[in-house]
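Re: beginner question about structure tokens

> Can someone show what the tokenized structure looks like for a real chain? I only ever see the sequence side.

Sure, here's an example I had lying around. Input first:
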Amino acid sequence: MEPDLTRRRILAGSAAVASTAALLGPLSSTASAAAPSATPPAAGARPTVVLVHGGFADASCWNAVVEQLQQAGYPVIAPANPLRSLPTDSAYIASVLRSISGPVVLAGHSYGGAVITNAAAGLPNVKALVYIAAFVPDQGEQLSVLINKYPGSIIEAATRPVPYVGPDGATGTDLYLDADKFRAAFAADLPTATTRLMQATQRPFSAACFTDTTTAVAWRAIPSWGLVADTDKAIPPALQRFFYDRAHARHVVEARGASHVAMISHPRTAARLIEQAARATG
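And the corresponding structure tokens:
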């Protein structure tokens, strides 16, 4: 864990799977920034960084990264990823991206990587993609298949399906991580007290997200960067490396000893990679 990850930052990031930002007070409002300004950027202005969280989580998982990027002078937006389906989530994030004036550096964690892969396709203002311990699917691929390409993931065994009925009467299934498996599968390098809070406040993650098919592939046209969490038990490190190699990532870094939530335990590493992408495409 990085030296600058103080208890305050751990607690700020502890609601990474919070269903409400109220648990985090002022820091949560920082991560879940207000709607982007329509004012055109000044000449030489830094690009806007958009951070997309993954399954079971909310935007507060980016708090420490947001703090570092803001201190470096970057405007940051961390929108809520609906976690309802890949087409739904991608369309929503694409609408956020289209609302931003000027260039964008777009980062995604975990399932958020699949979302940004689809959402950024065809959007000329997105100049860089940064994948943080993320899925990077190609056209026609499903996450439920990709997760088994390499051994090492225990995330499927840690999930519990919960059926629900929608307002139109249609049924669906949400996934939750079990209390006794959460820490090992998701956040083993964080304190136990922190992961207990994360588990209790996790957001429902629709099972449809794992079986939906990628239809658009932004990394074929937009340069990418990648971070490997080298003790990840959700997306195996070997799978992350495969993704980044296939996408011809310009630079890949490894967060040593990082669990799946590398942006919480290694925020400086994640922020530096995002800044590198911003400088390279500025």
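Each token stands for a local structural state, so reading them left to right follows the chain. The chain has one domain: 7-281.
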